[in-house]
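User: Let's play a game. I give you a shape written as C-alpha cells, and you guess the letters that built it. Ready? Here's round one.
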C-alpha cells in the first residue's frame, strides 16, 4: 500500500503544482494594487472559479504568446516531491489528506512572498480555517495520530507568539506572517508540543541564517525587507515529517 500511496500522492502533487502559476501571476502584485485580472496582453482571465483555476495560458493570445507567468514544471516537481515525502512519512492516516491539500497552497504562498514580500489574506485566512475544520474531521476517523484540541491550541500559541514579535518589531515582521502562523501552529500542534517547537524554531533558524548570509555577502543590508513566510513553511514541513515519523 505504501509505494502506491506515495505514487498517488506524487501524481496529485504534480497535478496541483501545474495549477500554481495562474494564481501566482494574479496574486504577485504590490499591496496597493488589485489582483491581476488579465494576461500581460490585456485579455481577461476566464475559467473555473472566476478565472483562478487552470493553466497559465491565454486562449485569446496568438500562438507562441499564450503562456504567461512562471513555468509550471518547477512548481509541479516541487509539489510532487513534497507530497511524496509526506505520504512516505505519514502513511495511510487521515491527516495525510489535510497535509496534501495544504501543500499547493503553501507552495503558492511561498512563491508570492518571494516575489512581492506579501502573504495575501485570501490565502492565509482560509488556510487556517480549512486546516482546523479538516483536522477536526480527521480526528473523528480511525487511525488518526494527532489531537484536534491540541492543534487548536497550537494555532493560538504560535499565532500569539508571532503577534508578539510583530508588535515588538513591526518593521521586522509582516502581519501576514502572523496569519500564516495560525495555520502552521494548527498543523504542528496536531502531532505535539515538541513538534510545534521544532517546526517553529526550524523556520526562525532558517530565516536568520539566510538573513545573516545575505548581509555577509552584501546582497542585503540590515534593514532590507526579506520574505519570511517561505522559511516558516519550510520549517513547519520539516516538523510535520518528524512528527509523523514519531507518531508511527
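Assistant: Ready! My guess for every position:
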Amino acid at each position: 500500500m505504501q509505494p502506491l500511496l506515495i505514487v498517488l500522492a506524487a501524481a496529485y502533487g504534480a497535478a496541483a503544482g501545474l495549477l500554481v502559476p495562474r494564481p501566482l501571476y494574479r496574486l504577485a502584485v504590490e499591496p496597493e494594487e488589485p489582483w491581476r485580472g488579465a494576461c500581460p496582453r490585456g485579455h481577461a482571465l476566464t475559467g473555473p472559479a472566476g478565472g483562478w483555476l487552470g493553466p497559465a495560458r491565454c486562449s485569446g493570445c496568438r500562438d507562441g504568446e499564450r503562456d504567461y507567468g512562471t513555468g509550471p514544471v518547477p512548481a509541479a516537481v516541487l509539489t510532487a516531491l513534497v507530497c511524496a515525502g509526506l505520504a512516505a512519512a505519514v502513511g495511510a492516516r487521515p491527516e495525510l489528506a489535510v497535509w496534501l491539500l495544504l501543500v499547493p497552497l503553501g507552495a503558492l504562498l511561498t512563491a508570492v512572498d518571494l516575489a512581492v514580500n506579501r502573504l495575501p489574506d485570501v490565502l492565509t485566512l482560509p488556510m487556517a480555517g480549512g486546516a482546523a475544520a479538516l483536522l477536526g474531521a480527521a480526528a473523528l476517523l480511525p487511525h488518526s495520530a494527532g489531537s484536534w484540541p491540541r492543534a487548536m491550541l497550537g494555532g493560538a500559541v504560535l499565532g500569539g507568539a508571532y503577534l508578539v514579535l510583530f508588535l515588538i518589531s513591526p518593521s521586522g515582521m509582516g502581519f501576514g506572517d502572523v496569519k500564516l502562523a495560525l495555520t502552521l501552529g494548527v498543523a504542528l500542534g496536531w502531532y505535539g508540543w515538541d513538534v510545534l517547537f521544532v517546526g517553529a524554531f526550524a523556520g526562525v533558524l532558517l530565516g536568520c541564517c539566510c538573513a545573516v548570509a545575505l548581509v555577509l555577502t552584501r546582497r542585503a543590508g540590515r534593514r532590507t525587507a526579506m520574505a519570511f513566510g517561505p522559511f516558516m513553511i519550510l520549517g513547519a514541513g520539516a516538523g510535520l515529517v518528524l512528527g509523523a515519523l514519531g507518531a508511527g
